[in-house]
Amino acid sequence: MQRGWKFSFHVSVVVASIIYIYFSTVFIYIDHWFGLWTSPGLLNAFVFTFLTAMCVYTYARAVFTDPGRIPSSFIPDVEDADNPIHEIKRKGGDLRYCQKCALHKPPRAHHCRVCNRCVLRMVLLVGSLTIDSPKDDEENESFFRTFYVISGLLLLPLSIALSFFWSWHVYLVLQNKTTIEYHEGVRAMWLAEKGGFLYSHPYNLGAYENLISVLGPNILCWVCPTADHIGSGLRFRTGVDKQAAT
């Protein structure tokens, strides 16, 4: 199911960043260092174009793929022996219920203000370029020097931010957590330690099984993961299930 088109400032910034990085890398850096139409230049341009295309494709899938919704018929069964874990409200201890959607919330589901509905397993979602080259070498060097400084000022903080988010999400995948579950887990860990207990994330199955649950069982598909292995999104395997299986 595909989402309808709607303008998003954040998506526009990401798209503009991708376009800027691609064209500046191919038509400025690669062309200046190797010569765009030389063998090294074409090879580097091809590799970078392929990586950019993969980036655009995966980002487009993330933007336009519908995140799913809770079935209107869903009602948690507290007596279901195959589903021993049920999430409850912090206050009152009742089963989680969304007043806006008028639906019970399955495990790991949260209400999204952007989609205006509860989302299953919610996580906190060209033509040519022509540059007129200066006429002499001195102006040419000055042009590239200025462009390098501007690019450095733009790309350095962007690279640091992307490296941080990449490392952060690798950690979340290895722990089988969403960003919301991480923040909730910090509080749960504090409360458990305060009461003299040990807290364990219920969906943590071990690093390898966590990777499988997120990226799929086929390692060859990890570079381009699909969602065929996720299931209904109403129930997820837990550490209790893993212990029972052994």
TrEMBL record:
The chain crosses the membrane at residues 7-30, 42-60, 114-131, 143-168. The keyword Transferase applies. One of its GO terms (cellular component) is endomembrane system. Its EC number is 2.3.1.225. GO terms for molecular function: protein-cysteine S-palmitoyltransferase activity. Its main location: membrane. InterPro entries: Palmitoyltrfase_DHHC, PFA4/ZDH16/20/ERF2-like. Residues 94-122 form the Palmitoyltransferase DHHC domain. Coiled coil: none annotated. Pfam families: DHHC (PF01529). It is found in: Endomembrane system. It catalyses: L-cysteinyl-[protein] + hexadecanoyl-CoA = S-hexadecanoyl-L-cysteinyl-[protein] + CoA. The keyword Transmembrane applies. It is a multi-pass membrane protein. Keywords: Acyltransferase, Membrane, Transferase, Transmembrane, Transmembrane helix. Belongs to the DHHC palmitoyltransferase family. The DHHC domain is required for palmitoyltransferase activity. This is S-acyltransferase. It comes from Oldenlandia corymbosa var. corymbosa. The lineage of its organism: Eukaryota, Viridiplantae, Streptophyta, Embryophyta, Tracheophyta.
